[in-house]
Amino acid sequence: MAAAAAGSASSVKETLPPALGSTSQPPPVFDGTTRLYICYLCPFAQRAWVTRNFKGLQDKIKLVAIDLQDKPAWYKEKVYPQGTVPSLEHNNEIMGESLELIKYIDGNFDGPALLPEDAEKRQFADGLIGYANAFTKALYSPLMAHAEVSDEVVAALDKLEVALSKFNDGPFFLGQFSLVDIAYVTILERVQIYYSHLRNYDIAKGRPNLEKFIQEMNKIDAYTDTKNDPLFLLDLAKNHLKVR
């Protein structure tokens, strides 16, 4: 598949820098280097990281990993006042918000285009990217509230299943791999393991399009190179959710 091949070609396995904690020194901000500030465990930062990788920008955008459990004061004071990840340092500016950043990286750097020129697909993409935050809230809310699988969870997953049937020229939301897939896969990566272990609920069961989507995403190096061990993510979630 062209998308998977491109992802493999552009995703050279890199040596990841250590996460910077409270005792670390800041990088020389605004020295002309383009930097992507992430946390290796954050699904929102992972979106920007995957986009960078797929476009083959490992040498153009330097990763700076932040330890959010031991966050350095300089990150908020000198880099990004909101103190969240991801953020991008580019052309003497700092910008954040993952869904905006992936569009920015796609539109302002070289590499394979991740949004189509086709007007129908572009409109569909805008709608799905716009829904990503609501989807995330729908899936995480029952976990945070220690509630069972809700009607909202089922409806949100069914919405993705239907969306994945819109175009038949590939297994992704727009047929071919795009920013839409990046917007959802890092959330799906987590909720799949959380719901399986904490609610005994398989999010892909009875949803063949979603199952195929997850399978195909796991063939793209630009994404798989950013993944954490699922059981490690589960342990983190259990600790955060106070689950025994």
Folded structure, characterized:
With 244 residues, this protein is an alpha+beta fold. The protein folds into two domains: 35-108, Glutaredoxin, CATH 3.40.30.10; 119-241, Glutathione S-transferase Yfyf (Class Pi), Chain A, domain 2. The chain has ten helices and four strands. It has helices at 2-10, 43-54, 73-79, 98-108, 119-144, 151-163, 179-198, 208-217, 221-224, 230-241; strands at 35-38, 62-65, 87-90, 93-96. Strands 2-1-3-4 form a four-stranded mixed beta sheet, covered by helices on one side. A hairpin with a 2-residue loop joins strand 3 and strand 4 (93-96). The protein is globular and about 50 Å long. Belongs to the GST superfamily. HSP26 family. GO terms for molecular function: glutathione transferase activity.
